[in-house]
Specification:
The protein has about 90 residues and is α+β, with helices and mostly antiparallel strands. It is built from 2 helices and 5 strands, in the order ββββαβα.
Length: about 90
């Protein structure tokens, strides 16, 4: 299991700016948290998703691929940091 924090640099007002992902050993997201410019923090898992937030339907690939894209700044984080964001986040409505 691995935990990622990804900053997404963009100008889209309705899109998240920070993404936290819990990645299973198979490369698929298990849980996700998205933080938005307006302060909203939403979470999703395999049972809870909406058009606004959901798990990736394909394996995420290596973090180096994400880091290579100029609009992203990605790092592996400790599980405790992910869990703190998970607790802060709300389910989508």
């Amino acid at each position: 299991m691995e935990h990622w924090k990804v900053y997404w640099r963009h100008e889209f007002q309705e899109e998240p700016v920070v993404l936290y992902s819990e990645i299973g050993d198979d490369g698929y997201e298990v849980r996700k948290v998205q933080e938005y410019r307006d302060g909203r923090v939403l979470r999703a898992d395999s049972l809870h998703d909406t058009a606004e937030i959901g798990l990736s339907e394909i394996p995420v690939g290596p973090i180096e691929d994400v880091q290579a894209q100029p609009e992203f700044s990605a790092s592996v984080i400790e599980r405790a940091e992910f869990e703190e964001m998970w607790r802060r986040a709300s389910w989508p409505t």
